[in-house]
Amino acid sequence: MDNSDLESGSGSGMKKKQKLNDPVDDKHEAVVDSSPQEEEEEEEDEEVVEKHRYRSMAKVAIGNLINPTLENSTITDMVHIVCPTFSLDTSKLQNAILELYREGKEKIKKLLKDAGGKLTLSCEWKVLGDWKWTSEDIVGPILHQDFMVISVYFANEDFKMRKWILAYHPHSPQDMKAKDVYLDSFKNVVKDYEIESKVSTLLVPNNVDLGLDGWIEERGESQINTNVFLIYCCSDVFRLMADDLYKDIRMSWLMDLVRILLGWESDGRLYPTHWTHTLHKLQTAVDMEAKDVFEDDKYDYYDYPSDEEWVRIRTFCKLAGCIYKVGKELFDGEYPTANVYFHLLVELKVMLKDEIKNGDGEYFLSKGMEILERFDKYWSDMFLVLATASVLDPRFKMKYLDFYCSKNSDDEGSKAKTVLDYLRNLYSRYAASDISPLPERAVEPTPRCIFYMFEDEVEEEEEEEKKPNGYGEFAFFQEYLKSEGCSREFPESSELDSYFKEPVLEWSKDLDALDWWRKESSKYPILSRVARDVLSIPVSRGTSNRAYVADKRECPEFIVALEGELLNAMMCGESWPATLIWPSRY
């Protein structure tokens, strides 16, 4: 927002001043009445200036998620620096936000409809975190506590991943428990943005029965086709496996015994919101128990877990430790594309089988089998899409899938052919469509947020934290790297066969697979588009710490006091590419 935008137009309704050539005192001034036409033009100019001013402030409110209903806010402080007499009208600010949203939505609709690739829609239930907020965090009545968020994921023409929120709607807790709430939310967004033919994948919570088959039959041939993939969130299945292990500890109040022993502050919550936090605390207790720390006299007055209860705790730590070892690499690594999930989930599968094989005790074996059964269901549902993404990773191609299948039973040993047949069929469908080679383009720079308050408040970018590298401890993957691989014959009759005939790339953990396909798009004009659409499928709704949340993720506190239309405009607009949707000048 330019200072001139705020300072200009402060003389609305005043008469023009004109200097007189007074020979005695040229500082004297006389007032000359403006004509009615001039006064009308001044009023029109002032309206334009005021509109521009509120649009500028609306951009700041959206980009920084500042509550627009407050008369005294960061926006007010910012404006008063350059225009001390300005009085903020919050209703005008809210109207400007809604106007920006409506304009932006039309542009987003066009961008999605014109996009060359396919789209993935995801749904997520967000809630007000009742353990966290205080009366100072939320101004006004709490109007909503539950929200359904629909987001779109895709890779653009520059092979860059994009995620935009398309709907952020409040619902009552009763509505959120309705059978069709997820399906209806998808339907409404698809219809509203007119992207029926563009959606190829739906990302849903792991325990949601979407009932998609009925939707497809209802919509008919002109709507979403029956080849749509249902993707179940990977971080959800990790959380559910951890919860399967934890439920016996939680139900017996054993966690409270451990909390007291460790002097663990509860932070106002009965249980932590991240299951990894629970793992860390219980593992600390196990390590202390192994060193006989609790034999010290100072623990004589504490209740102490029984031998049976220690078995439960050690079982949780051992099996949840396997889950976390893979989860840390998968989620903390913040990989943007789907190609890394297959081989890392294979590692978890191998770890769990080894633990069960070498485990001791009825309780340990029963819990191990319980979480392995949950994992196997997810693995079966997701095998095709995850394996296809792995094959489109130039570090693997068919080599890793062939190696995995060669080490497994006949049931999975034949799946390599199924994946290859599917990929050939998918390539053929793309080849049959009217696809021209992608134009040579400069790489699109990563967008920076332009919504900041003052330059001296912009924090310097923190040094990027070192990402995990657990591959050295992944036994199956290390065995794969040492293998020679089996040879396949690929007749060079298509781009796909040419891709397979080329040797795999040397292993490099940090390869950007989408960027590799961008660079090779002139060589593989059709296959690169297949790869772009497959690799851009999100497999998890959460990365980093968001992947370990115990249940539903939290919404920003201030939105619970906003009207539904306004909060939707704020949350959608904040995720959209501002420099593209709303040019800096009007």
From TrEMBL:
Domain HAT C-terminal dimerisation, residue spans: 495-576
GO molecular function: DNA binding; protein dimerization activity
Compositionally biased spans, kind Acidic residues: 36-48
Lineage top rank: taxon: Eukaryota
Domain annotation hAT-like transposase RNase-H fold: ranges: 334-430
Pfam families: Dimer_Tnp_hAT, hAT-like_RNase-H
InterPro entries: hAT-like_transposase_RNase-H, HATC_C_dom, RNaseH-like_sf
Region (Disordered): 1-51
Basic and acidic residues bias (residue ranges): 19-31
PANTHER family recorded: BED FINGER-RELATED, ZINC FINGER BED DOMAIN-CONTAINING PROTEIN DAYSLEEPER-LIKE
Record's protein name: Zinc finger BED domain-containing protein RICESLEEPER 2-like
